[in-house]
Design brief:
- With 186 residues, the protein is of the alpha+beta class.
- The protein has one domain: minor pseudopilin epsh fold (3-Layer(bab) Sandwich), CATH 3.55.40.
- It has one helix and eleven strands; from the N terminus they run H-E-E-E-E-E-E-E-E-E-E-E.
- 18% of the residues are buried.
């Protein structure tokens, strides 16, 4: 057999000219990489947008559920409760003698902070109040008789989404998101 082996240069590569060692990416390989990067970026942007929306929805539903629970607890235990707002968030307080004191024995009614990107507006009995007033904090009273301070609480985010929680004197709560309504009687 007279098979001839290809000649090698001093670098160990076949000698085919000066550009033989400089092989680049094909156009198809570059397009596939750009497509993959585009898909990853689109998923990332979708998840970030849904994240802010989900935080707003979760907080609106949390306040709605806590007020429902407070109404039930107030009637069952025969004690007066109130949802009190402060500059950082909100907490539940109970009437102890002549003073309103934080509810400490129940983890569900603990103090909570609002996420920083949420905006809050509050109307109590038809009068708009400042929910960040620390000297005279606004309260939604939840009474043992089943009655509640009439209120409208609006939670919004920087993207313009708004949830409205409305409470009636009878204790009926309504949570709505930009035209959608979810009535809840208790």
């Amino acid at each position: 057999m007279n098979a001839r082996l290809p000649s090698r240069t001093s670098t160990g590569l076949h000698s085919r000219g000066p550009l033989a060692a400089c092989r680049g990416f094909t156009l198809l390989e570059l397009l596939v990489v750009i497509l993959i990067i585009g898909i990853i970026v689109s998923f990332a942007s979708l998840s970030v947008g849904q994240h802010a929306s989900r935080i707003l929805q979760d907080e609106a539903e949390r306040i709605h559920s806590l007020l429902r629970l407070a109404g039930e607890e107030s009637v069952l235990q025969g004690r007066e409760l109130a949802l009190q707002f402060n500059p950082e968030g909100y907490l539940f307080v109970t009437l102890d003698g002549a003073d309103w004191v934080p509810v400490e024995e129940d983890r569900l009614f603990r103090e909570r902070e609002l996420p920083p990107d949420l905006e809050l507006s509050l109307t109590l009995e038809g009068v708009e109040v400042d929910p960040h007033d620390s000297e005279n904090p606004p309260r939604i009273f939840v009474l043992s008789s089943g009655e509640m301070t009439p209120f409208v609480l609006e939670l919004g985010n920087l993207e313009g989404e708004v949830y409205t929680l409305q409470g009636e004197f009878t204790g009926k709560l309504t949570l709505a998101r930009t035209g959608e309504a979810d009535d809840d009687n208790w």
